[in-house]
């Protein structure tokens, strides 16, 4: 932080306060788990790490020199400014590769997982379109994957959207039955961004490799949180996002296997950077930040996972012991513990979110939360529409504290009970009336 402090002093400004070692936590002396800004106004505590994560201070420290002193274009080959930026970029590429067991030459820097998903799916499909016109994915993928597939359908490709079981996992037999002679690609998300379910990636990779079909996984919610090895798992393409692993926004990566070689048709043309697959100047500070985030994640993955698991169990156990008729969405075992999706029967999810205004939470994916429709992921696992509308996603991450979990639990229990007391449906259930037996009239 020294460089930032010096720059701030030169401008006569106060340097931003550095996060303490344990990360953002309760406001001083409040005991509530809420933080305050410099004006003293309370801010909501943050429990939405699936949407984005705070920048790790160690990542920021690695980026600062490349935002100020080392500003050369990494593709300039005739002077030291370019050479030092290129060296930093290649070191970041190696850090990303080391996290997933890849070769650094297989890492392509992008603007994030959305671009990586588009590159992988459209790139493979279009390159092999003369011989292969079929793609397999699932109904619970991220919206950018589903929209990429729908876009390809308008170009004459056929897409199989595999259903998932009630626990959110795909049926491997249904996957095997879906292959066709001209299948070019299978795309299955590693960890679901709404319900935290972890798909059997290694098994899927084995099935695809046996059929000489490329396997792509959107690993934005998995990288740095669970061990991933592209060779053991037979993954051919993998999408990575910087801001999901305590790195900067606006940067990501696509892993593209070299042997057996995967070929892509580029989405954009230009100077031929990134092996010609993603032309455009690589933003050195962002790439350095992504690399540093991957290195920190590799060092702390085991500790983070153990701690997040304990906090997640604390949250779920306390809520379910105090509040009846709460459903956890997704498989209870095959999941990443930091993503918890609960449905509170007889409570409108948006009303609960408004009541919990001092806790930053979500009712689903940040990319689709503007929609009033129930989550398509919850619909895919067979959740009733009323329960789907009552779901809340709790995100626990590296900097989440025990006090923040307890505060969230306390407020959640308080407001669920209050909202249910106001609900005529809850009153009917308490009187022993089966709501499904009622024939509601339409007006």
Automatic annotation (TrEMBL):
**Subunit structure comment from the entry:** Homodimer. Component of the mitochondrial core iron-sulfur cluster (ISC) complex composed of NFS1, LYRM4, NDUFAB1, ISCU, FXN, and FDX2; this complex is a heterohexamer containing two copies of each monomer. Component of cyteine desulfurase complex composed of NFS1, LYRM4 and NDUFAB1; this complex contributes to the activation of cysteine desulfurase activity and NFS1 stabilization. Interacts (homodimer form) with ISCU (D-state); each monomer interacts with the C-terminal regions of each NFS1 monomer. Interacts with HSPA9. Interacts (via homodimer form) with FDX2.
Catalytic activity, EC: 2.8.1.7
Q: Which reaction does it catalyse?
A: L-cysteinyl-[cysteine desulfurase] + L-cysteine = S-sulfanyl-L-cysteinyl-[cysteine desulfurase] + L-alanine
Instruction: Report the GO molecular function annotations.
Output: cysteine desulfurase activity; iron-sulfur cluster binding; metal ion binding; pyridoxal phosphate binding
Q: Which cofactor does it need?
A: pyridoxal 5'-phosphate
Alphabetic keyword roster: Iron, Iron-sulfur, Metal-binding, Molybdenum cofactor biosynthesis, Pyridoxal phosphate, Transferase
Please identify the protein, giving its name as recorded.
Cysteine desulfurase
């Amino acid at each position: 932080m020294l460089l930032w402090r010096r720059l701030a002093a030169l401008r006569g400004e106060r340097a931003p306060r550095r996060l303490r070692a344990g990360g953002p936590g309760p406001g001083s002396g409040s005991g509530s788990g809420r933080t305050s800004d410099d004006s003293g106004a309370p801010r909501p505590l943050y429990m939405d790490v699936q949407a984005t994560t705070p920048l790790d201070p160690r990542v920021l420290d690695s980026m600062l020199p490349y935002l100020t002193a080392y500003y050369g274009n990494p593709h300039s080959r005739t002077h030291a400014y370019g050479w030092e930026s290129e060296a930093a970029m290649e070191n970041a590429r190696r850090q990303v590769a080391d996290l997933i067991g890849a070769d650094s030459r297989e890492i392509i820097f992008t603007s994030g997982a959305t671009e990586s998903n588009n590159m992988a799916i459209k790139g493979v499909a279009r390159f092999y379109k003369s011989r292969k016109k079929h793609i397999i994915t699932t109904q619970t993928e991220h919206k950018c994957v589903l929209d990429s597939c729908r876009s390809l359908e308008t170009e004459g490709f056929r897409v199989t959207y595999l259903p998932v079981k009630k626990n959110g996992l795909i049926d491997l037999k249904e996957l095997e039955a879906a292959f066709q002679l001209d299948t070019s690609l299978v795309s299955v998300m590693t960890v679901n961004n709404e319900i935290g379910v972890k798909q059997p990636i290694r098994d899927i990779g084995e099935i695809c490799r046996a059929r000489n079909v490329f396997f792509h996984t959107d690993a934005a919610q998995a990288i740095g949180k669970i061990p991933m090895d592209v060779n053991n798992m037979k993954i051919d393409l993998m999408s990575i996002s910087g801001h999901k692993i305590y790195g900067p926004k606006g940067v990501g990566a696509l892993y593209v296997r070299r042997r057996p070689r995967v070929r892509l048709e580029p989405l954009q043309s230009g100077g031929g950077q990134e092996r010609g697959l993603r032309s455009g100047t690589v933003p050195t500070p962002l790439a350095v930040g992504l690399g540093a985030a991957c290195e920190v994640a590799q060092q702390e993955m085991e500790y983070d996972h153990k701690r997040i698991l304990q906090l997640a169990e604390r949250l779920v156990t306390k809520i379910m012991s105090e509040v009846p008729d709460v459903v956890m969405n997704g498989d209870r075992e095959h999941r990443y513990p930091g993503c918890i999706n609960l449905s509170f029967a007889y409570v409108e999810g948006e009303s609960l979110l408004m009541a919990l205004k001092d806790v930053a939470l979500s009712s689903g994916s940040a990319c689709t939360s503007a929609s009033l429709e129930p989550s398509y992921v919850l619909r895919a696992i067979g959740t009733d529409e009323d329960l789907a509308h009552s779901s809340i996603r709790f995100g626990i991450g590296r900097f989440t504290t025990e006090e923040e979990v307890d505060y969230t639990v306390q407020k959640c229990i308080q407001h669920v009970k209050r909202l249910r007391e106001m609900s005529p449906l809850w009153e009917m259930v308490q009187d022993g009336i089966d709501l499904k037996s009622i024939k509601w009239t339409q007006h």
